[in-house]
Amino acid sequence: MKELFYISLLVCYCTFAHGQPRLGIADFAVDTANFGIGLYGEYSLGSTVLTNRMYMDFYQGRYLEAEVLDKASKRLVQFNKAGGDIKYGLYFSQNLNKVIKKKGLSYFVNVADRVHWDLLFTDDLFKAVFYGNKMFEGDTAEMGTFEGNFQRYQQFQLGLIKTNENKSAIGMGLSFLKGQQFYQLDITRANLYTSMLGMENNLDLEYRTVESDPDNTDMNDMSGWGASVDAFYQLPYYMLQNTPEHESDWKGYLRIEARDLGLIVWNDRTRVRVKDSVYHNEGILIPTGLALSPTWEEEQRDSLKQLLQPETYTGSLTSILPATFHLRMYQANSSGLFVSMGTVLRTFANYSPMIYLGGGKTFSYKLSIGGTMEFGGYGRFNLGVEAKTRIKGYELVLGSRSLGGILFPETGGGNSAFISITKNF
Amino acid sequence: MHRILRITISLALIITLGPSCRKNDTGPSWDVDVLAPLLRAELSLQNIIADSLISVDPDSALTIAYNGTVYRFNLDTLINIPDESIQQTFISPLASAYLQPGAPIPFFGAQQETKYNLNGVELKRVKIRSGWITLELSNSIQEIVDISYLMPNATKSGAPFSFTESIPAGTQTLQSTITRSYDLSGYAIDMRGVNLNDFNTMVAQFTANISTSATDSIMINQGDKFDMKYTFTDIKTEYAVGYFGSYSISNAYTEPVDLFKNIPIGYLNIDSFSMNMKIENGFGIDAQLRIDTLQAINTTTGGSTAMNHPLIGSAINLTRAVDLASPGYPFTYTEYNISLNNNNSNINALVTTLPDLFRYAFAMDINPFGNNSSGNDFLYHNSDIKISIDLDVPVRFEANGLTMMDTVSFDLGKDPGEPHETTITDGFFYIYVNNGFPFDAKLQIYLYDESFAIMDSLLFTPNNIIKAAPVDLSNKVVANRETRLDIPVDIQKMILFEQASKAIVKVAFTTKPNSQIMTIYEYYQLDLKLVGDFTYRASVN
Fold it and tell me: Which end of chain B is more exposed for a tag (fewer CB within 10 A), N or C?
């Protein structure tokens, strides 16, 4: 029990310290054991532009040096992405073989806290925000399109997994979701013109924000509810063809998986703000020459407030979860070598299709080590490492898919870690 | 000024950098280069002098036309009916007598005359605009007494002023007393007495009866008495006729002049100048006015100029107003006009002193030749003797270092000792000036602390000269001229901004070309724009 407590602390520390999802319901399957229980935590954040150093300076509230911004800006393209996930929780699974005499059937219960955020922004937005508008003198900074999403919810999941004798497997999980917090900012148009010598600025702006009940943002609060489905199908797959003369030593599977197909309905205290305006600034006119009236300052404040005040609507609103589709092939041979490759697609998440290639070696029952290369997603190229060990019946997996960002924070743009501790009985 | 900068910089940052970027100490921060217009102003002569004082000639040249009253001698100065209390006591001459209910008390009934001393003023008729009479009535008879008071010569719409009151029973040792006030507004009072040949005299009739509600006869004892004390309060005169006396008034005082209050120093040569001084008499009296001194004083330079004109020190006879209605008045003013110009006075010298004070000294004799009107002087409530001036100044002048100066207060909203919050770290404020006036303007802004100790100067010579617009052979501006003034800012400068509590803005004008009289036209204008080009420390919550 004490071990379990320390493990729980470790998981919570890792997840709260940095935050992010990798595990799917296929990982909840119990094979030959009667029960399985596990704690897991993952966080990941990545960007095609933002470097690890910039993340950390930002997160820790430090001053962002010019060279940090310069290194990030070198990675800019017209449209840039950033995003991340945090997922931590615990699951329990039970083999139903002895309960209802259904061989290979198990069910699982999974409880998790989920956070997702993503951004899509233009190079001009990054430059205007982090360098200022002076570099656009005589030009227009095209800061739209911008999309930003943040949502946090808690998940209670119940599912079944059926593993067949031929090693094929199928599983499905249904989740009830408790919505905690949702924020969305869509800037359709934000063109900032700065005239020569700064004689005038012109901002053509159209944006929409959605904010869930601002008075209920804690984990105990329920600002919305929803449902989602996770499912996978896995079939045995031999990468090298078997022939009567030669049976390949490499065996494995091909898995297709869908996660988080669902939505959350946010309550009727959700606020939507809309603004579509053109702001023209030639400097605030002092109408009376240089003699200011006593109420001038107050008038300017009111005027500024009026200028920026969006139209606000309050009412219920539905958000779609960022769903994940994952195709994975895994092969291992009798000498302990294993390879994996796959692709991940995410919808409604400003996520680029990601492909990965991984490999490693199982040295013994107690230890295996592997690595991955990833292209796409919220970053560009990254390297990962993963280690699995078994100690006193517990299986501990830990690793990161963003070694580049950790080893080279000045230029690398990813940060992630995952850990899981499971025990089968 | 700092508040202005804060607001305008905030506006510029919000528009240029978006709502995510704002000042805060707790979040991450970074430096951004901002280029944005902050303030703008369009200055013309109309910004310095009220539109109502400026007229435009057919050729667009401007003229300042000022008309205003500089002195007023009003009714309160001439006659003043004081708040005065008069007490009358009526004592029973009877040894003792019984009176039936409703019977008159015999020692009342005759008309009483009361004559007032109004310090040489002999009023024959007065109409009250507003005011009160308050009566305090005391009774020692041991029964309720009904009293009636009548002023037959005080009438309103033909009806005399009167009232009836009941005074409770009293004793000789403890009289009963009532106090009542009556509004006299609108009453016309003939103050010539019972025989209509006197002045300052009020006539009243007082009767008293044992109350009809008395149940039995009552004995009047020797020594029984009534006391009547009446007081006129807050009497304002609507109209008065009489002889207002013969006496002299003299006075000397200083009057601030706003026209040049922000232009304390410099050389000003005004091309032409004319002023008409008008003295109007709205009283039905003869008067003689003597202006002894009219002096322009510049307290900044210490300079002063006394007016030279033949009428200074001479008596001016003011004939009486006519008791005939004129537009806006129930009487007709008589006027006396004095023309002042460069030929008959040194009026130009007075103005070019750039005075912030005028000192006057005068004497006025009322009815200097005695009771010429046979007691028919008159006045109305809005009668006065006033001195007004009509000033007509074509805006044509030569200036050399003519300095306008103004003080602007700061309020950063910071507590003393509060640490400096980094905002602007480096850069410039640029003042872009588009000058349409034919004069150079040398601009300087000084920062001062609470005790007016100078802390910093924002502009440095020679980068503080706004160049004059070029003119043609007729000294008319042919094109505007643009100038940029640079105000460097850095962290130290911003700290001084925070510590400063006042700024003094000085602009010294010099017409170009030199030694030429320049005409100012309606379309001359000076456009200012303050542009920020600086590095700003942005941060996020």
Answer: C
